[in-house]
RNA sequence: GUCCCCAUCGUCUAGAGGCCCAGGACACUACCCUUUCACGGUAGGUACCGGGGUUCGAAUCCCCGUGGGGACGCCA
């Protein structure tokens, strides 16, 4: 059997982390089994769906590299088909018209709640043998309800949660078409999953309650029931539910924050799924390993620290050229002009193992290209009088030293030794003067990636400053 | 309220009756490396929600409790 999975977001907002994981698992399962991954936009709620949200979802999936084989299909473009199926169901008696108004329904639900009952439609317009239905009010539009089986249980073997059984008595007759004739979510899903030949429905936990209803409709339609896998939810770092008001962010915000898509993907894959002790793996490895039986049924808390660790790892190991172009874009966005020397490639080689994200890398790369003004407090702290002589000594030898880190390192050592000082006495002033930062890579390697004149310039600029009354500029 | 789901270190998880007085990873602490800070290396602390069963034996199976979550829309 050809595996067919789908990701079916509703375009009412951006692609958030939970949706991204659902998409990732659906995608990976299809890839694992050489199946097909389908993207379907569930935009039947005309009031809340927006083209911007559709684009945001598409952008998010593209950034993550979750490519789909079919689609995107839009439910709003399949309306005639849904209407036809509703007509068939009406004719077959598996659906019926209900003339109850929203107000009446509200009142009914309130009463039921007041009595401690589960709010549900009471079936007053449901045709039964021997039952006399009320007379339909003239000129009043009707909704169409599904005639849910009254007895028995609906059961399915959930691929992550195991067997779930729900009594039909718990289910009421849900509306499948609104008074204006448009079909509702639960109905469209069923028709689409059926006609698109979906074999595995991988979706969020919050749909567990919809599943028995959908199975019943599927059965009324004589359709094959797909297999279901319900993923538990992702909680915020504080253990609270992620919502628009609380912590739910677009995957694109991770891009802005300097994360690499492979880090986000690896992190997400590991959130709720495991393959023994494996922590770091590529998506192609993931697609070889991924099966539904190692998905945890319990909710998982999002942990930014671990994501950071993965991101730092990928930053260290990505292809240098790709990293360079990613970084160049970020620097240019800041208005920084990337000069030919020191080369971005050299800066990256020196720093990529030391930063957690692309923005941090941009922060350190930037100092090589801007008009540097080291902070006064740092100058005061590290450019102490005892360092002046050794610094001048170093500067004096600069024009003659071979321009590579080994020779520069040797020169630094000679200078400190001559002045009877420890290494940091020269290394720290150099760091501050050259980058304005207290933490840099090995100072000899740092000096070496600059053009010689630029080092001279940055070092001398402050050698003048030290003659100023405050000792710093 | 009713129905459904979930429950191992702070966090993500391994674990499918003996291999577990519970393993890995992130984070944390200490030490090593060292030219600062990272990286890396080594070591360490911290967990089976509670109570009953079943069994020679339970983190693993069953029941109850507790806690958390989800759903109950002419939203998806």
Write structural notes for this entry:
45% of the residues lie in helices and 11% in strands. With 473 residues, it is mainly alpha-helical. Among the domains are: 80-231, Rossmann fold (3-Layer(aba) Sandwich), CATH 3.40.50.620; 318-366, Helicase, Ruva Protein, domain 3 (Orthogonal Bundle); 376-465, Arc Repressor Mutant, subunit A. Helix 5 packs across helix 6 and helix 16 (405-418) crosses helix 18 (443-449). It is elongated and about 110 Å long. It starts with a strand and ends in an 8-residue tail after the last helix. 32% of the residues are buried. Residues 467-473 have low confidence and may be disordered. The protein binds one RNA strand of 76 nucleotides through helix 4, strand 7, helix 5, strand 12 and helix 10.
Short structural summary:
By secondary structure, the chain is mainly alpha-helical. It has helices at residues 17-32, 51-64, 79-92, 102-114, 185-195, 211-220, 251-256, 261-270, 283-289, 304-317, 320-333, 344-351, 358-366, 376-382, 385-397, 405-418, 423-435, 443-449, 452-465; strands at 4-7, 36-41, 70-74, 95-98, 143-146, 153-158, 162-167, 175-177, 200-204, 227-231, 234-235, 300-301.
